[in-house]
Amino acid sequence: MSSRAITGLRTKRALDVPGRRRRKTRGSLSGWLFVGPFMVVLIAMLIVPIGYALYLSLFRDQLIGGNHFVGLANYAQLLQDSKFWSGFLRVLVFLVIQVPIMLVLALVAALALDSARVHAAGFFRIAIFLPYAVPGVVAALIWGFIYGPQFGLTGSFNSAIGIDLLQPFTPTWILTSIGNIVTWEFLGYNMIIFFAALRVVPTDLYEAAALDGAGPLRTILSIKIPALRGSMVIATIFSIIGSFQLFNEPNLLKSLAPNVIGTFFTPNMYAYNLSFAGQQFNYSATVAIVMGVITAVIAYVVQVRGTRTENR
Amino acid sequence: MSTLTRPAAAVDDSVVRRSRRRSAKGSGSGLREKKSLPLTAIMIVFLVYSFAPLFYLIVNSTKSQDDLLSTFGLWFGGGFDLFANIRDVFTYNGGIFLQWFGNTLLYVVVGAGGATFLATIAGYGLAKFRFVGRRLVFAVVLGSIAIPGTALAVPTFLLFSKLGLTNTPWAIILPSLVSPFGLYLVWTYAVDAIPTELLEAARMDGASEIRIFFTIAVKLLTPGIVTVLLFSVVAVWNNYFLPLIMLSDPRWYPLTVGLNQWSQQASGVAAHPIYNLVVTGSLLTIIPIVVVFLLLQRYWQSGLGAGGVKE
Q1: pTM for the whole thing?
Q2: Which residue segment(s) compose the domain that B228 sits in?
Q3: Interface pTM (ipTM) of the complex?
Q4: What are residue B248's phi and psi, to 5 degrees?
Q5: Nearest CA in chain A to B170
Q6: Taking the mean position of all CA atoms in its chain, how far away is CA A184?
């Protein structure tokens, strides 16, 4: 898709490999010796499934007539499918609210750690990162228990304050409940990415800023935040992918909130349930493709825009 | 990690120097920047948020099923049943948990190990060789980073069921072998970490490319390789969606799918809740991966910086 978009990340230097012309043939053989196995697996596990999904999405399996070519009829149906769009809207709302909150929190934590003014910074760094190592399933199970009325904490909390303030499994709260789980899982991961980027800011920039009389806030706004642009683009892209592909957390909470989380709560759950409950493989492949394309396009736009501002 | 630790150390220096300058004007106590209580307090809030659920898990793994339902969630109950719970986890249903643990290990060793190996040799190849089709490979790899893996899960399942691969370990291992981001990490790392002159010298001495890779490159790439391995291990260890759709036979389940199956037993027609086993099983599932992270922390802390974010 996007050789251009990535260029912001590294490229120019890397593409100027110090190869020599006369070595080209030998380099070609050796190069493919190393790159070949990866490309074979990539094609078999990535390109072929995409091709197969595209192929499936052009067919329909019907009681009368069997499996037959329908052109873009599945896509036309999807455009009209309110179940799909309600799920899409839901993950879009989720994305617009949860991702900025998570990234800002991660940024605050990373800046605090980088300021060198926090006691026991190394301990905090590792401890806050640890939830990333917890499998999403386990995270959803733990938080599900915590939310739950049976032996959770919300019940204790509500009875302590006397009103039913927290109701994690009601339609109004459910997205917040899921957003909290996702934030918990990835806050530390994003913090580490930002922190690592801050560590490689050239020292002379800070020195120059200090000489110019810049305070901590000024240094953050003028040096640190711009230096984080590349890693923010990466973090945003991964968060966008994560939001649009939301599946694990709602699917696991579904058994606790069966009336709130339906079979088409997110597009991925819809695709899953179409395949495994409905046996509608062709339509399910269509959903997967459309969501994949939307995700990739938005990730691409973020990449390009992030890179362009960078070259300003 | 030389490219990373050096600037990092330099930043520390400047902080010290700046504070020295500042302290000369001000109170004039220490050499280091004064620690700030408000900033530390902010970090404590983050810490509590990150740790509370893990604390909850630890506390509740010591409770019996009855205590779970009757005592306050954030503190220990009457009895201490951790060991009884652990025993029950391992013996329940003919020791199926141990089977799931073994499956997870198999998927991690072959899947994440294979993914790391493929990403390493390919990253090295991209960084150090000029070959026909290189730009194409480059574009395909970078493009595929943005392709969400979960979007491919259903199509891959459909393909695998045509090939008769579902419900076998291959259904989990084969898709795990692809790691475009891992390749990207190794590639950016290799550009700096391996001096091309060194490779040229080895070639002059008549060493074969494969030998050069295993004797010279692997050593220089080790921090990058460990980082990629670590993140592949996490990805496979935590994988849920793929095994959920690929496997129908519980004997092939990894821990994640198995635990969820236990948790689902609580609802439905033949409800038979085993919450204490779910809680304790969850705790046992995260311990190995947390230990690995703590042991290898110096790799991921700096290795992440090498990925994606350098210019």
Answers
A1: 0.83
A2: 94-306
A3: 0.83
A4: -115, -15
A5: A45
A6: 14
